[in-house]
Amino acid sequence: MPLSGMAIAFKASTSACTAQQLWGHPTRDQCQHGFTHLNERKSRKGSAALHARAIPGNLDLDFGDPSWKQKYQEDWDRRFSLPHITDVFDLEPRLTTFSLKKNRSPLGASDASSPDKWNGYVNKDDRALLKVINYASNTSAGAVCIDPDCSWVEHWVHRAGPRKEIYYEPEEVKAAIVTCGGLCPGLNDVIRQIVFTLEIYGVKNIVGIQFGYRGFFEKGLKEMPLSRDVVENINLAGGSFLGVSRGGAKTSEIVDSIQARRIDMLFVIGGNGSHAGANAIHEECRKRKLKVSVVAVPKTIDNDILFMDKTFGFDTAVEEAQRAINSAYIEARSAYHGVGLVKLMGRSTGFIAMHASLSSGQIDVCLIPEVSFTLDGEHGVLSHLEHLLETKGFCVVCVAEGAGQDLLQKSNATDASGNVILSDFGVHMQQKIKKHFKDIGVLADVKYIDPTYMVRACRANASDAILCTVLGQNAVHGAFAGFSGITSGSVDTPFAMITYPRFC
């Protein structure tokens, strides 16, 4: 049975909001709910009072209005509605070709030929609950509240998966796949699964666009024909079978190329910048009234896309980072006053560094972008390292690449994707540690390890391979269901407590 998850519209997605922004309530509320946090104002008696007004999207809310929940819900539903090709074209659906009924016979069923006998489809009205915790107070750990009373408001998003009805004739479809941005474990797994699922629907014309969006306009970069035979074993290697690049041509030029190539479905595998590009392509296709479904698969090794439980490549990166941490530990443990320093990926979030540190059990200090810190002074990190060398004899430090940027000289330079080029905090930390201990006359043997490209270039592990399979399947299901301007992922599976009798 196909696995399912959720789908989110680009226009409603807040993928540009990272976990770093979620730590501070004002930005978190603006990212997740579309409005700024409740402002404090002084009452006539001088005490602080909450000003019970907010702005979700373009909607003014007054929490004194008994109908504020209904207005908020209507605005949410509007912002998270999925764009569909029937918004532009007057089309009638046809029964899906994704069934495999001839190969399936449900238990106890005598007639497996009936389309109603196989219950593997997702109803178009199915929804997934995005927010699953009912916070009792806005002081609860991690609480995300809309109003001062932390009222329960349901956030529903569309469930992903195969539908009974589709809006494309598979034999007439030309589908294209493109991988953008940097490398990430699992790219080949997603490519492979998209091709497999397209062929199950009956698509014969599948092509790969080489080297990201550049493949649409760079002379000499031809389409790469894809089929099951071609992609059968690409998941056994890291990297991208199609190649990657950052940046790209103007949206109009890309859509000109899509139109000239007669592409009906475009699958974009990438992160925030790639999603922004996919959204622009989707909007331009609509403007030109082209029957093209643009569907994305969220890719970021940093695991920092809002609403998503996990993005592919993250588990593999954490697992691979263990090798670097273990090496740093052995070096530090084996040296007199050894200091092992590891820098891991994480531009604006420290999920890789934090998870790798927690799972290794060998890290003494973990520095991430979400938490501010000082290096110097009585309560600084360097002072703590002195204490560790004095008490333990060695220490191991892990830093995320985006940590401590406020302590470094800022650069206005950007890469091809428009991302600010960060100063190298790992090297800075290495130099600061050496200088600090030299200045106080204490020997410190510092070993610095930066496994960045080793971590992102390796093959996906089992956990990520399964996630890539589901994401690839759901991307194709979404396109055949007629959606465009969407992305997919799994959402909100928190830990809970259940009484023992429920297991008995």
From TrEMBL:
Q: Which cofactors does this gene product need?
A: Mg(2+)
Superkingdom is Eukaryota
Write one Pfam family the protein is assigned to: PFK
Provide the reaction this enzyme catalyses. beta-D-fructose 6-phosphate + ATP = beta-D-fructose 1,6-bisphosphate + ADP + H(+)
Alphabetical list of InterPro entries matching this protein: ATP_PFK, PFKA, Phosphofructokinase_dom, PKF_sf
Q: Which GO terms describe its biological process?
A: fructose 6-phosphate metabolic process
Q: Which GO terms describe its cellular component?
A: cytoplasm
Keywords of this protein's UniProt record, alphabetized?
Allosteric enzyme, ATP-binding, Glycolysis, Kinase, Magnesium, Metal-binding, Nucleotide-binding, Transferase
Coiled-coil region list: none
**Which is an annotated GO molecular function term of this record?**
metal ion binding
Domain Phosphofructokinase, residue spans: 175-477
**What's the stated role of this polypeptide?**
Catalyzes the phosphorylation of D-fructose 6-phosphate to fructose 1,6-bisphosphate by ATP, the first committing step of glycolysis.
Q: What is this protein called?
A: Phosphofructokinase domain-containing protein
Q: Which species is this record about?
A: Triticum aestivum (Wheat)
Q: What is the lineage of its organism?
A: Eukaryota, Viridiplantae, Streptophyta, Embryophyta, Tracheophyta
